[in-house]
From TrEMBL:
It comes from the Bacteria. The lineage of its organism: Bacteria, Bacillati, Bacillota, Bacilli, Bacillales. Its EC number is 2.7.14.1. This is Protein-arginine kinase. Keywords: Allosteric enzyme, ATP-binding, Kinase, Nucleotide-binding, Transferase. It comes from Paenibacillus beijingensis. The keyword Transferase applies.
Length: 347
């Protein structure tokens, strides 16, 4: 959230996820509790024995030791999947100290390695994920077929087992009504478009996750290169749309951005959908040079901090939806309004 990275005004983050399973072990959906515990013990030993030290500092988190709220916050920070949060009996997370690497154990597959970088750094994320994958492969016998490649629980991941994705902020393409044409073209070249939390989630706040859809029949480098090429084109389309908006409708865009900034700064109630849209407006205003009193990093943080689990953790209280809407507005005000107006920002 605090990082910048290349093209960070449009690409918020780049992610590589690698799915692997162990040979001669039932996949998680068919495994008994004891078999899942054995897998967890075998894979967490890689971190416990210091084999990951060559790529960073890691801690192991047993998900059954966490509360439901703590697991939800991990989901909102994109460190674990909703599936792992809901099935935590034999699940574990190996997490790097800067949270750029999260390794999920006993999710849909035995092992899921995720590397998350700020900005457009998909090739850098792939390089690190590949190194971590090699470390685990030295310690575990992967389920691999000479013809089909790496075997996974879901057929759509068979082959390389790689899911490469970028999270893009595309407000200008939405405003100029070009987004549907762009997204249609994306799906025709073997890529998928999803919302903030992946498959089945809604694209709120003009945030779109672009990822490869094909894992079988292509090499890892072909997958990464194809995604990189398409994302580079989307970046150029979004930049052109922003320039066109500023040339043709600058006053309307400035009015929209400043209205959203004012509402976020002083509203007493704010639901998650409205906050996502207005945060998107303000972030666009920052990137277009229309707003200078708040940093893009603050807006990135607010997009996560205003999620239900994070809110409840930040205020250390359990809330119903109406209470969350009040607290969400309060948290945003504290981050945006000058300290002298409210007596201090939320730390």
């Amino acid at each position: 959230m605090k990082g910048g990275g290349p093209d960070s005004d449009i690409v918020f983050s780049s992610r590589i996820r690698i799915a692997r399973n162990l040979r001669h072990k039932p996949f998680p959906m068919l495994a008994t509790n004891q078999q899942s515990q054995d897998v967890m013990e075998q894979l967490t030993a890689v971190a416990r024995e210091g084999k990951l030290n060559k790529v960073g500092t890691f801690e192991t988190i047993i998900l059954s030791d966490l509360s439901e709220l703590e697991r939800r916050v991990l989901v909102e920070k994109h460190l674990i999947s909703p599936g792992l949060a809901n099935e935590s009996r034999s699940g574990a997370l190996i997490l790097s100290d800067n949270e750029s690497v999260s390794i999920m154990i006993n999710e849909e597959d035995h092992l899921r390695i995720q590397c998350l970088y700020p900005g457009f750094q998909i090739q850098e994320a792939w390089s690190l994920a590949s190194r971590i994958d090699d470390i685990f492969e030295e310690a575990a016998d992967y389920a691999f077929d000479e013809k089909r490649g790496y075997l996974t629980s879901c057929p759509t991941n068979v082959g390389t087992g790689i899911r490469a994705s970028v999270m893009m902020h595309l407000p200008a393409l939405v405003m100029t009504q070009q987004i549907n044409r762009i997204l249609s073209a994306i799906t025709q070249v073997g890529l998928a478009v999803r919302g903030l939390y992946g498959e089945g989630s809604e694209a709120i706040g003009n945030l779109f996750q672009i990822s490869n859809q094909i894992t079988l029949g292509q090499s890892e480098n072909e997958i990464i290169t194809n995604l990189y090429s398409v994302v580079r084109q989307i970046i150029e389309h979004e930049k052109a749309a922003r320039e066109r908006l500023m040339a043709d409708s600058r006053l309307r865009i400035e009015d929209r951005v400043r209205r959203s900034y004012g509402i976020l700064s002083y509203a007493a109630i704010m639901d998650s959908k409205e906050s996502a849209q207005r945060l998107s407006d303000v972030r666009l205003g920052i990137d277009l040079g229309l707003i200078s009193q708040v940093s893009p990093q603050v807006m990135n943080e607010l997009m996560v901090m205003t999620q239900p689990g994070f809110l409840q953790q930040a205020f250390d209280e359990k809330m119903n939806p109406d209470q969350r809407d009040v607290r969400r507005a309060e948290l945003i005000r504290r981050q945006l309004v000058p300290r002298s107006e409210h007596g201090g920002a939320l730390e």
